[in-house]
C-alpha cells in the first residue's frame, strides 16, 4: 500500500511534466494541424536557458525560491519568443502548402535544435543548480513527499489554470478557439490568424520551457537530447487524451506518467516504453479520437 | 420488383431528425426527381442509400436484397453509383484515370499478368481504355481525357462525376445537383446527355436538383422532402400545384426560416 | 517466351547488376561502393514507404520497425536456419524470410490501425516501431542490447540493386496499372473511392503489407551487407529519415523518392568534412529545401512525364 | 504525354536509364570533392567516434584524450621521424554510420590504423572493415568480449565485462561482507547488460542473493519507480552498472526515497559529473576503475594536469583517459613496428607488454584484450578514494 502511494506520487509529478509538454502539442495541433516535432526540443532549450540564467544571474551560488521564479519566468519568455520565431521562419511560409512539407520543416527544426544544442551547449550532461533545496515534506511509513514534487505539481496546476483562464475568458483565447475551429472562417471574421498562431506558439513553448526548468530542478541532469523521448511521450499523451483537446492533454499526460511509473514498478521496467505505446494503441482502437476527442464525421 | 425500395427509413443526428419515416420506390429505367428546400434531407437520403450513414430504423432494398448498413463499396457493387453535391473527384488524377478508377470492379484481377505486362494484359487495357473513352465521349469530355481532373471547369467536373459513376456500370444512378453552377447552355446540354444515357443504358436515375425547370422537364415522378419528411409524391404537373410544396418553398406568411 | 520478350529490358537490367557490380568492385573503392549500396537500400525504403504515404495517402512513421523485423528475421534465418547453404540459395531465402516476416508484421499492425486517420495512424505506427525495438532489445536470442553479428556477407551491390530494381518495377507497374490506380484514388478522396466500389481498407492494407514487405527486404539486405545489426539503426529517427525522402522527392512520385534517397544519402556523406557541424548544416539544408520546393523535388510528377521537362509550372 | 493506362514500357526504361546515369555521376562528383591523398611526410591515424547523437558525450571525451596524446607525440617529434595526423570521423552514434566512417578513413584518408569506438555496437559494426583491409583497430572502451573476436587486427585498451563485473561481485561479497544485492541495469546499453550478467553470476557463485533486478534506458531521468520497488526488497547494496550520465541521478533519487544502502558501479561512474550531479548522494558508492588519482604515478598526474589545462579546468573522465591511452599505445606500437604497414603495426600491438599507460600497466593478451589491474574506489565526501587493487 505504501509502495503504491509512493508510486502514485512519483507518477503524478512525472505526469504533470508530460501534461505541460502535451498542452503545447495540442495547442499547435489545434490551430495548424501540425505535429510540431520541434516541441520536445523547445522543452530542452527551456531547461538549458534556465541553467544558463541561473548561472549568469548568480542564483546558482545563492539559491533562493525567488531566484527560481525569476529563472523560470525568464526561461518561459525566451522560449516563447523562440517558439514564435520557429513558427515565423519554418512554418508560416508553408501554411498553405501540403501539410507534409510543414512536418518536414518541423523535423528539420528539431534536428537543428538537437545537433545545434550539442554543438552550442556541449553534449555532456549538465548539473542543474539546486535553486530550491530538496527535502522531504513529510514521511508516512515508507511514503516520502518531497517539496520539489509538490512544487512541480502545484506550478503545473497553476499554469494549467492560467491557460484555462486565457483560453476561456480572454479575447485572444476566444480567437485561438475560433482558429482551431476553422482557419478560413476566423480570418473572414476579422481575426488576425497570424497573430493568433504566434500567440499559440508563444504559450505552448512557454509551457514547455516551464516543464524543462522544473525537470531541471527535480531531476538535475540536463543535456541537449533530453527532449527527444519526453517529446514523443508527451505527443502520445496528447493523442491519448484526444489531440486538440486541452483537458485531454492534461489527463493524457497524467495517465502516461502514472501508467509508466506503475508499469515500471509492478510489471517490468524493461518494457515500460513499449507499454506506453501499447496503451495508446488499445485506447485508440476503442476510441479512435482519443479519450476526450470527438470523432469528426466528414460531411458528404 | 422495384429496383430500389426504401421502407420507413429514419435517421437522427443528435436530436435532429434528418430523415423520418422515408419510404420510396424506384423501378428500373425510371427517372425520378427528389426535391425540397435547403436542409430538407435530400442528400441525407443519398447518403443513406449509399451507406455513408446507416439508418436508425427502416429497410433499404436493392433488387430485393437488403443493403442497409453495408459498407459503401459493397452498395456500389450491388449496382448503385452516385455523384456528389460538393464535387468529389480525384483532382490530381487525369480525367481518364478518374473514369478508370470507376471501372475498377470490371478490371480482371490478374496480378501476374499485371506485373509481367502480358499480351492479355495489354489487350484488356486497350479494351478498358476504349470503354472509358466511350464513356467520356458520352459526356463530351473525351478531348480533355489527359488533363488533371482538378483543372476542369465546374460544369466539366460535374459531368466527369457522372462519367465516373457510369464507369462502375450501375443499374441505378444517383445524381446530386448535377446542374449546380452550370450556365443555361450547359444545363441544356446536360439534360440531353442524361436523356441519352438513360436511353442507351436503361438506368434508373434518381436526381436531386434545385433547377425546377430542369426537373419538371425531365422527371416522370417527383418526391418532395421537407424537414426530413415526404410532403408530396407525384407527376411534375401535380407537384407544381401542390399546396404543401408551395408552402414549403415560399413559406407561410409568418415563415420559419430555413 | 512471350513473357520473356515483353520483359526483356527489366530482366536484362536486373541481370546486368552482376557484371556492373563486378566492374564497380574492380574500379571503385569500397567506401564509394558502400555509399552506392546505401543509396540502393534507402531508395528501396523510400519507394516502399512512398506506396503507403505518398500514393495511398496514409501516414506511416514506423518504416524502420518493418526494416528491423526484416533485418532481424533474415539475420536469425541465416545464422540458425540456412547456415551453410550456398549463397545463391541462401540469399533468396533470407530475403524472402525477411520480407515475409515484415509483411506479416505489416498485416498485424495494419488490420486494426488502418481505420485510424492521419496523425493517429502516424503515432500508432511510430509506437509499433518502438515496441519492436524494445522487444528486440529484450530478446537475448537475437543479442538484445549487444546486437546481432556474424551474418555472412550475402548482399552486395548486385543483389541490392537487383532487388531495388525489382521493387521499383513491382510498385511502378502496380500503381500504374488500371487496377492499381485505386491506390491513388484512396489518397485523393476516400469517400468517393468507396462510392466507386473500391474496398478502401483492402487497398490500404495491401499498400501497407507490400510496403512493409519491401522494407523487410531492405532490412535483410542491410543486415547482410553490414554483417552486424543493432536496434540503434532502426530508431524512430530512421523512420523519419525515410519520410523525409518521400516528402522531399514529392509525395507519390516514385522517381522523386529515388532521387531524394540518393540526394540525402550522398549529402550526409558529402558533408562529412564538417565533422560535428555536419548535422546542423544538414538540418538547415533540409529546411531550406522544403521552403523553396514545398511540394518536393518532383511534386506529384514522375521524371518521365514530359510536363516536368517542358514547363516549369510543374511543382 | 504517355498514355496513362497502356503499358509504359518505354518510359519505365528511361526512368532506369536516367537513374543509373545519376547514380554513376554522383559518386564521381563526390570523389572529386572529398578525395584527398595523404601526404607522405606524415603518418595518418584514423579516429571514429560519436561526436554527435545519443552518446556524443563519450565520443567527445575520447576525442579530447586522443588529441592530447597526439599533441604530446608530435611535441616529441612525431613517429618514425614523421609528423602524426589524426583524422576524426563522426558516426552520429549509429552502427551503419560507423561502417561508413571507417571505410572513409581507410579508403579516402589512407590511415595506417584506426582508433574507436566507445560503444561495442559500433566497434562490432566497424571491425570487419578494418579486418578485411588489414588495418589495425584499437577500441578505447568497447567492453563486449565479442569485439576482439572479429579478427586478429582488432584490439582494445579497456577491461572486458566479465573482469569488471566479477571483480565488483567478489569485492562486495568478500570485502564488504554483503549478501543481498539489487541490480539496476541499463537495458539499452550492452556494457551495462554485460556487467550485470557477470556480477550476477559471480555473486550467486559466492553465495549471495540477488533480491531485485530492475532496469532503465539510456537517457532516462526518472528512476523513482524502479528505486521504490528496489527499496521494498531491502537489499544491502545496489549494483548500478551504467554511465555517470544516469548513475549520478539514480543515486540522488535513491537518497530522496530514503534508499541509503551503498551503490556499486563500474568504470562508467568515473567522471567529475558523478559528484557534481550526485552531490552528497553518491558518497559511500564503490566502483571499479582503471586508476586512482591517489596512486601518485607520474603518468596519472601529468595526464590530469595537462587535461585540465587544455579543457578549461575540466577533470577527465574514464573515456578521456582511455582515448589518451589508446593513442599512446598505438604510437608505441608504430614505433616498435618501425613501419606503417598494417600487418607490422598489428604484430607490434599484439606484442604490447607492460606498457605504462595512465589507466594502468597494460599487456595485450592472446585474445587482443588489455590486461591491467583494476582498482576499487570509494566516493568519500566528493572524492574518489583508493580502496584496493586487484591484479588481472
How many structural domains in the coordinates of chain B? 2
General shape of chain B: globular
**Strand order, sheet with most strands of chain B:** 6-7-8-3-9-10
Main β-sheet description of chain B: 6 strands, mixed
SSE string of chain B: EEEHEEHEHHHHEHEHEEHH
Q: Low-confidence segments of chain B, ≥5 residues, pLDDT <50?
A: none
Which CATH C-level class of the largest domain in chain B is it?
A: Alpha Beta
**Rg of chain A to the nearest angstrom?**
19 Å
Mean pLDDT of chain B: 89
CATH architecture label of the largest domain in chain B: 3-Layer(aba) Sandwich
Instruction: Specify the number of helices of chain B.
Output: 10
Number of discrete helical segments of chain A: 11
Shape of chain A: globular
Strand order of the largest sheet of chain A: 1-4
N-to-C span of chain A: 54 Å
> CATH fold name of the largest domain in chain B, please?
Rossmann fold
* Overall pLDDT level of chain A: 89
Note the quaternary state here. Answer: heterotetramer
Estimate percent helicity of chain A: over 70%
Tally of DSSP β-strands of chain B? 10
Description:
The complex is a heterotetramer of chains A (300), B (258), C (315) and D (392). With 300 residues, chain A is mostly helical. Chain A has eleven helices and four strands, in the order ααααβββααααβααα. A two-stranded antiparallel ribbon of chain A has the order 1-4. A two-stranded antiparallel ribbon of chain A has the order 2-3. The model of chain A has no long low-confidence stretch (mean pLDDT 89). Chain B is of the alpha/beta class. Chain B has two domains: 168 residues, P-loop containing nucleotide triphosphate hydrolases (Rossmann fold, 3-Layer(aba) Sandwich); 80 residues, no CATH class. Chain B contains ten helices and ten strands. A six-stranded mixed beta sheet of chain B has the order 6-7-8-3-9-10, sandwiched between helices. In chain B, strands 2-1-4-5 form a four-stranded antiparallel beta sheet, covered by helices on one side. In chain B, a hairpin with a 2-residue loop joins strand 4 and strand 5. The longest helix of chain B has 20 residues. Chain B is globular, with a radius of gyration of 19 Å. By secondary structure, chain C is an all-alpha fold. In chain C, helix 2 runs antiparallel to helix 7 and helix 5 packs antiparallel against helix 10. Chain D has 392 residues and is of the alpha/beta class. Chain D folds into two domains: 197 residues, Rossmann fold, CATH 3.40.50.2300; 128 residues, Response regulator (Rossmann fold, 3-Layer(aba) Sandwich). In chain D, helix 6 links the parallel strand 6 and strand 7. In chain D, helix 5 crosses helix 6 and helix 11 crosses helix 12. The N terminus of chain D is likely disordered. Chains A and C meet through helix 4, helix 9 and helix 11 of A and helix 6, helix 11 and helix 13 of C.
